[in-house]
Each structure stands twice: as structure tokens, then as C-alpha cells.
Design goal:
58% helix; 6% strand; two-stranded antiparallel ribbon; 20 helices
Length: 537
């Protein structure tokens, strides 16, 4: 059985192009399963993003400001939303989740059907201040069809965009000599919540996927220098950075954080080589222009909402509450679905946290000096950043932080840990008396992650089908996605296990004329592991 899996893995990952295509198809199968198996309007604020995407696709980049009363986290206020002109059925979207959201025992079957009226009316969206690039990329299907089909198509486009970014991260990680170990870091970073958000029309999905690509490419550039791969790695950093900076206001901060920690982990002499690259300055210029554009957009679209925060919500109280919610935020980064009313099963959390704990421990054990400082600093940042961010905004916006907001930055933790351990652990045969048994650890870890991933999907689909108080196996489902719950559970489970197969494949053999790519002296040190793979597309 193991030999069969190994042969399948070798075929799937035989070349960079084949690996990218395989990873894209499997990531798309996972995110698209979430797209289809989640009720329309069943994810956080998705109705606002649907409306924003449809409006931008119709050329309505801006709109009139409309003050709308809302209650968020128990605090009343008037939110500054953007009014746009769309077909009437878009006005029905904000109420789709009202009957079952935050009512875990109620299945999604209570939601009213979405109409298809073509009459144009004014609709408001809370996402009107966001940069239009993501919405232009995902909103165009609404020009082709209407009703639920348009919404599902928009979700699938979002899933495809995120899958392309994640597939590029997989190819980048596979360029390391210890490919299986590096890929384990990517699979640990792409949590069920990351895949779930990737399948929704929500900029969080693209932001998280771009974060994974930026971190993987940056660490590869600075920890495993290779002249032949440098330009393509820089291109991946640039593409991921352009998405990250333009998709949400926090993206620039997450990109800067990734650069800071990657520089802490750089190998001696690498930065000089990178700074001499023309490609670096081309991408730096593009990122600079994108940053200026993003800042100008944010400055021209301020949030004029008026939130009636209680006087007792001081900065000190906000910091205390946010710190106390750290465990909840960690769980939300792993898997908190629906309108944050459907936590993943305990099995998913325990397996994922267990794998992360082992990877971090190995990174600390094998790391040296700056590497240990960087890992400990990253652990501290995962706790402190939400505290600082929410403390500064709580008196104006209330307690609105969610774990997924930090995920584009936090994905760097498992990647830093596993790549540090892979770089520093000694060479030699694995097993008793030899090197660390990386292949055995990787096999058990990726199998556990795949099973935990599939469990989170089934658990969430069951909640929508029969509610949390319904039968464990929802044969008599009150609500079912197009095609039925059995089909999508099977697709998701198969894709989850197939995705981790490349971590079991043998390393690529270099087909570069003359052997391995030429590297500088710093790259040739024994402590580093040079990739055995040609430049990947």
C-alpha cells in the first residue's frame, strides 16, 4: 500500500509544472467544496461582499454613503455603508442567514428562497470602502447569470484565485531539498479555516492564501539562496505581496511583518546577493506603487460609522478582554465556520495544534541564535498583535476582532519553524543512531491533518443539514447543497488525502545542465540544503 502511494505521489510531483497543476486542482476541489456546501449567506458578512462584487463588476466603484443601524457584538451604532444600484434580488441577501445564524440547532433549510427580479433598486453594502481589485476579479460572473447561480460562480472564482496562490506556495516549498518537511509546513499553515474562507466571496480568503505564498517565497529567498531560482522566487513574493497589499487595509502590515521576520532568519551573505538582483528592484517598485495606491484609496474612503461604545470599554478593558480571548482566536484561525457559530470538532483542533506544537518544538530545538529569537518573537506576536490592534480601535468600533484577521500573518509560524528545523537538522540516514526521522514524522502528520480537515468539513456540513442537535449522520437532511451532502463529503475527503501525497514523493532530480545550479559561497555551507530542482513556473 505504501509503495502504491509513493508511486502515485511521484507521478503527481514529477515536475514543477505537474506539481503546480496537481496542487491547484486539489486545493480548488477543497475550497470549491466549501463554496457549494455552505448555504448562500452562511459565512461572515458574505452578503456585503456579494453586493460589493456585483456593483464593482458593473462599474460602480464608489457609491453614496448611507447610515444604517446595526448591532455588532452587542453594541448599537449607525454604520456608514455604501449605496449601489443592483437587481432587486440582491436586496434579499442580508436576511438569508437570519433564521439559523447563531442558532446552532437550526438547519439552514429555514432560509427563504432567493428571487430573480431584475428590477433595479438601491442596495447597501458595508464593504463599499474596500479596494475594488478583489471584487472586480470575483464579481464578473454576476454579469453572466443571475440568482443563486451567480453567487455560486462568484464563490468558485474566488476559490480558483486562492488555489492558484496556494499551488505556487507548494511548488516553492518543494524546491527545498527536504521537500516533504517543507511541504508539511505549508499544509499545516493552510488550515480548514483558510480553505473555507477561500471558497467564499470574502477578501479574507485571498489575503490568507497570499500570506502563505509570501511567507514561503520570502523564507526560500533568504534561507536557501539559489541564483537560478532567485528571480522566480522574487516574482512569487511580488505577486503575493501585490494581492496582500491591495486586498485589505491590514495587508501592508502583514507583508511588512513577514519581511521583518524573514530578515531575522536570513543566511549570512544572502541579503547582498538579493539586493544586487534587478528583479528585486522591479518588484519593489511595483509594490511601492501598489502601497501608495492602497494608502490613497484608504485615505479617500474613511469609515464614518458612529458606534455607541460603552464608557466602560476603555483601552485597558479592551486589552484585558482581548488577551483573555486568545484561545478563541487560535481556534478561529483553525476552524470556526458559519457566522462564527460552528466550531470545528475537538478532534480537528487537537490534531492541528498537536502538529503545530511538534513543528515549533523542533524549530526551537534545532534553531540557533536569531532563529530561536525569531520563533519566540513570532509566538509572542500571535498573542500581542490582536491585543494592540483591538485596544487601539475598541473605543471607536467595539470588540470586533476575529481570529481570521491575523491568519495571513500567523501562517508564517509553522513555516518558520519547519524550515528552520529542515535547514539545521543534521544529514544522514534517518532512524536509531542516525538523523531525525523526518519522513516518518511527515507521514503521520500529513495523514492526521488530512483526517482532521475532512472531519471539520463533515461536521460543518452536518450543522447546516440538520443542526448540531440532529443525528450524527444526516441521512434525513433538512437542507442539502446542490448534488447532496454525500457527494461533497466524498470529494472533500478524497482531495484532503490526495493533497498531502506530494509530501511523500521523492525529491526532484536536477535537470540543469552541468548538475546543480551554481550558488554563492554562503549558499554552499553545509548547514543549508540546496534545492535539487530547476526553476518552477
Amino acid at each position: 500500500m505504501i509503495s502504491v502511494l509513493r508511486r502515485a505521489a511521484d507521478r503527481a510531483a514529477r515536475t514543477p509544472k505537474r506539481l503546480w497543476a496537481t496542487a491547484f486542482v486539489l486545493f480548488f476541489a477543497l475550497s470549491a467544496s466549501w463554496s457549494v456546501a455552505t448555504p448562500l449567506g452562511g459565512s461572515p458578512d458574505e452578503h456585503a461582499h456579494f453586493i460589493r462584487a456585483a456593483a464593482v463588476a458593473r462599474g460602480q466603484i464608489n457609491g453614496s454613503e448611507v447610515m444604517v443601524p446595526h448591532v455588532v457584538a452587542g453594541i448599537e451604532g449607525h454604520f456608514a455603508e455604501t449605496g449601489v444600484r443592483l437587481p432587486q434580488w440582491y436586496a434579499e441577501l442580508p436576511t438569508q442567514h437570519d433564521c439559523y445564524a447563531w442558532q446552532e440547532g437550526t438547519p439552514a433549510s429555514c432560509a427563504p428562497a432567493i428571487g430573480q427580479s431584475g428590477k433595479t433598486v438601491q442596495v447597501t453594502t458595508a464593504a463599499g470602502r474596500y479596494h475594488p481589485a478583489y471584487y472586480l476579479a470575483t464579481g464578473w460572473p454576476s454579469l453572466l447569470v443571475k440568482g443563486p447561480n451567480a453567487l455560486y460562480l462568484m464563490r468558485l472564482v474566488s476559490a480558483a484565485l486562492c488555489s492558484a496562490l496556494l499551488a505556487s506556495a507548494v511548488v516553492t516549498a518543494a524546491e527545498w531539498r527536504r521537500r516533504s518537511v517543507a511541504l508539511l509546513g505549508v499544509f499545516a499553515a493552510v488550515t480548514p479555516m483558510a480553505l473555507y474562507m477561500g471558497g467564499m466571496v470574502n477578501p479574507s480568503g485571498g489575503e490568507i492564501a497570499a500570506g502563505v505564498l509570501v511567507w514561503t517565497a520570502l523564507l526560500s529567498v533568504l534561507m536557501v539562496p539559489d541564483r537560478q531560482l532567485l528571480n522566480r522566487r522574487l516574482a512569487r513574493v511580488g505577486i503575493g505581496g501585490l494581492v496582500l497589499i491591495n486586498i485589505r487595509p491590514l495587508g501592508l502590515i502583514w507583508f511588512a511583518g513577514a519581511v521583518f521576520f524573514a530578515l531575522l532568519l536570513q543566511q549570512r551573505g544572502v541579503l547582498g546577493q538579493v539586493l544586487r538582483s534587478k528583479a528585486l528592484w522591479v518588484w519593489t517598485g511595483l509594490l511601492g506603487v501598489a502601497t501608495a495606491g492602497a494608502l490613497l484609496w484608504a485615505g479617500a474612503h474613511p469609515d464614518n460609522s458612529v458606534i455607541n461604545t460603552p464608557k466602560t470599554l476603555t483601552m485597558k478593558e479592551a486589552a484585558r478582554q482581548t488577551f483573555g480571548n486568545t484561545e478563541t482566536y487560535v481556534h478561529q484561525m483553525l476552524g470556526y465556520f458559519g457566522w462564527l457559530d460552528t466550531p470545528a470538532p475537538a478532534f480537528t483542533w487537537l490534531v492541528w495544534l498537536g502538529v503545530l506544537a511538534v513543528l515549533i518544538a523542533l524549530g526551537l530545538a534545532y534553531g540557533r541564535g536569531r532563529e530561536v529569537v525569531a520563533l519566540l518573537g513570532m509566538l509572542l506576536a500571535v498573542v500581542v498583535v490582536p491585543v494592540v490592534a483591538q485596544t487601539l480601535q475598541a473605543e471607536k468600533l467595539g470588540m470586533v476582532w476575529q481570529g481570521r484577521y491575523l491568519l495571513p500573518f500567523a501562517v508564517g509560524l509553522p513555516l518558520m519553524a519547519v524550515l528552520t528545523a529542515a535547514s539545521r537538522s543534521p544529514e544522514g540516514p534517518e532512524g536509531p543512531g542516525g538523523g531525525f526521522p523526518w519522513r516518518r514524522l511527515t507521514g503521520f502528520a500529513v495523514a492526521g491533518l488530512a483526517l482532521a480537515n475532512a472531519a471539520a468539513f463533515f461536521w460543518t456540513l452536518r450543522r447546516f443539514a440538520v443542526g448540531t442537535s440532529g443525528p450524527w449522520v444526516p441521512f434525513a437532511a433538512h437542507w442539502a447543497p446542490p448534488g447532496g451532502w454525500v457527494l461533497w463529503t466524498a470529494v472533500y475527503t478524497a482531495a484532503a488525502f490526495a493533497l498531502v501525497l506530494p509530501a511523500l514523493a521523492r525529491d526532484w532530480e536536477s535537470d540543469v545542465p552541468g548538475g546543480r545550479p551554481e550558488q554563492d559561497d554562503a549558499a554552499a555551507r553545509p548547514s543549508q540544503h540546496r534545492p535539487r530542482v530547476p526553476a518552477a513556473r
